[in-house]
Amino acid sequence: MRHRRSLARPWAAGALAAATLVLPVTAPTQPAAAADSASATVFYYTKTKNWSDHYLHYAPDGGSWTTVPGRRMEAACTDWVKLTVDLGSAAGLQATFNNGNGVWDNNGGRNYALGTGNITVKDGVVAHSDPCADTGEGSGNEATVYYSTQTLGWTTANFHYAPAGGSWTAVPGVGMEAACAGWWKKTVDIGSATSLKAAFNNGNGVWDNNNGADYTIASGTSTVHDRTVTANAKDPCAAEEPDTEAPSVPAGVRASATNTSVVVSWDAATDNTGVTKYQVTRTGGTKGTTVVDVTSTVWSDTGLEEDTAYSYTVKAVDAAGNTSAASAAATATTGKKPATPASGTPLGTDPRKDPIYFVMTARFHDGDTSNNRGGSQHTKSGNAANNDPMFRGDFKGLVERLDYIKALGFSAVWITPVVLNRSDYDHHGYHGYDFYKVDARLESTGASYQDLINAAHAKGMKIYQDVVYNHSSRWGAKGLFTPTVYGVRDSQWSWYYDEKNEGFEYDGLTVETKSGKSYYNGDLWSTAAPTGNTCLNWGVPTGGKSAEGYTLYNCQWPSPTSGMFPKAYYHQCWIGNWEGEDARSCWLHEDLADFNTENTQVQNYLIGAYDKYIDMGVDGFRVDTAVHIPRVTWNRRFLPAIQERVTQRFGAEAARNFFVFGEVAAFVNDKWNRGSVNHSAQFYTWKERKEYSADDETAAIEQFTYENNLGTGNQPTSTNAFLEGNAYHTPDHSKFSGMNIIDMRMHMNFSDAQNAFGNGKDSDDSVNDATYNVVYVDSHDYGPNKSSTRYSGGTDAWAENMSLMWTFRGIPTLYYGSEIEFQKGQRIDCGPTCPLATTGRAYYGDHLAGSVTASDFGTVASANGQVATTLAQPLVKHLQRLNQIRRAVPALQMGQYSTEGISGGMAFKRRYTSGGTDSFALVAVTDAATYSGIPNGTYRDAVTGDVKTVSNGSLSVAAPGKGNLRVYVLDGPGKIGTDGPYLK
Fold first, then answer.
1. What is the CATH number of the domain that holds 934?
2. Which of 221, 230, 466, 497 falls 20 to 30 Å from 766 in CA-CA distance?
3. How confident is the model at residue 172 (pLDDT cuts 50, 70, 90)?
4. Which residues are in the Fibronectin type-III domain (predicted)?
5. Is residue 220 in a domain?
6. What sign results for the dihedral spanned by CA atoms 306, 312, 318, 320?
7. What is the CATH number of the domain that holds 73?
8. Which pLDDT value is given to residue 259?
9. Same domain, 825 and 902
10. How many distinct structural domains can be found in the chain?
11. How confident is the model at residue 36 (pLDDT cuts 50, 70, 90)?
12. How far is C-alpha 704 from the geometric centre of its chain's CA atoms?
């Protein structure tokens, strides 16, 4: 399943064995020296020090040193002197060098440890070669080879080669000369041969032999870089010629208006070095000409004048500032201003301050029964018998219960996708159909999506919108491509295919008059093949029968392999290997049509859609199925587009705090998902570290192969989550991609809090900044260990998990209802095969009946009815106090952590320092702990109010008990909140 690096094979015909870049191999057999005598020829580089004379002062291993200053060395070749010494039976020698007048090079006081054979010492680096051998002078063919060590970290390089038909050089070969940063050069005479076999090494047993195949290099000038040989190559060390070539003119510029907004998109321009941005020029209206810089190939222009024609042209710009000519103009005329309220503004604060409450909007609280819809599976699923339509909760219900969520102590709400969905069972929101339109089944008069965002912000609460970039519904994406299936209203199928109503537009809510259904499908089928049909055997019977015994036809149902979807917009395969490249370029499921996200028009469609929700003021995006899009596509297209849009609309500070967290579903306990870096959550927190093809589809394959070959041991690491001793340090986010992650490894291990703690710590050095990890026990998909049921570990275990989540690094997150162990042990999801009421996605509103008002986060001002009973439950009390404590101690929100000098189970120290804030906390969950080497001073426990004065750098904590904890804060406020069932 993995591209494993091979081990060494036996030597053959003098060629280099199949060792890899990083595996040492046994050097080939040298001609044997006399049994009782060994020698070493030591070459010393003279150019750096420019001494007038050179002496070698040495002692054979186990023998005596020469008399100071040692033996004079002789000239060898330009910039080198040498001396051959007899070592007797010794296997090496200790050595220093001097100029005969008291100036020494003794390797910084450590002396040089040298072996036998040819040895070079250059600028403190010891290697094994003859730098004076084969200068390249001769009358035969020459090969000039440049070798890159940029990704290897070698400090010297040797060239081991054999001309075609000739013999190999003696190992380790000839020394190469430094050419420029990261590059080494050697010119060799290969006689009448026109090519050579070659391998490279660092002189100390580490080889690159092209994975055992050796390199074939032609005469002339060649480069070898990351195992790729380029013949007739340019000198990589030559000065770059100035880039004076402008990009091509952007083509295919399109503009479309909706109300007083215009979406402009265009095809990517090409350039000899790469396009870095586009300049979009708008003319029209009373405000004159405007020019904006855009890094993607789509621009959403909002807040325009009504009933006004606007014209747009686009120029492409490269890194050198070369600018193309303007494109042909595209025009669009605006309509009337929308009736929805003005755009909101994101709160724009550090997301680590905000614990997250995750709701499935359609299942949380029903504020408006008129928008409830059961869908085509209402009866079959058993929902009808429970009077429980799948679309039941809505924005109105969520607005009405924001105070409940605030009373729990949460200041951020993650909601399921809001775009118009279309499938047989789409209450969860992951079957997007019209990405530019909010699903009408969620909205009400006075409770639009904008109203929800505004209402949350008014209470100091954030809205995180679940977004899907990877796939649409099986019926495609309106405005991009929607497939037409074969259908016929005959005696067998008229019950299924609704009669066409040309004036009706599906919105999920409106009942179509002919069919009497809101899940109308009359716009999806045709008896005649649609224009441009690519589905083979359209309408021809397959020979099979449906469950009812009805005739089945080709092209009757969307699928990736039917040819029903255009290759430009959708992928054409099923996933076969979930840790293979196809996991990023094939369909997940039959009702999730997989976007070709490397296509510019698909990118434009999605960027334009999500710009709309950014403009409404959402505070962040939870990214669904992030792992099924190549990281290079995220880093090139979608993540920069998000940052660019937030910056343009709300400023740089809002953009820094716009919280994007991705679902990279790795359901294993490994640090790296079955050894695949490309499918591991932490991988997505990093920028790319090399350039790939300008074509996104090619780049995706290049990036997958490159990172897969590097493997888990060659990934970037970070100290951003860790204290340095007791000190907080400024995190380095220069290599951050823009995407944070759900902590899948902790999630998988939360059947036991101690396991979650240990596994979380183990992964943190490979995450760009784990203090931003989103941490939860279970969700709408899975429980710990990929359990298909909602967490049922018991109240004490829940309390312990919460105590850890609310004090350890990361952002604590709770799936709706877990505060009362809602639906514990029930299957989380079974689709339409069982009633929702029997699953983890059951309707929660019955527990919220009555009224509630929050006076602050974690504090109830008043409550009556069933919601008052809900708020009195033990885990609710536990959550409220945890949230109060976390909000009062900055170290618990944004602090780095360490377990250094700490004994105990789930015990750690955290610190956050910024401006006038310096917060230092010692945390012990469940078990006793001892902290040593900590700052002296007065520590107060936020749970009990206990005060401990530290004068010897040590503090001990007795075991608080399961679910309980201690939070000793240096110069802290003391006890926060009142004792509850666990925190006491």
1. 2.60.40.1180
2. 466
3. confident
4. 246-337
5. yes
6. negative
7. 2.60.40.10
8. 83
9. no
10. 5
11. low
12. 13
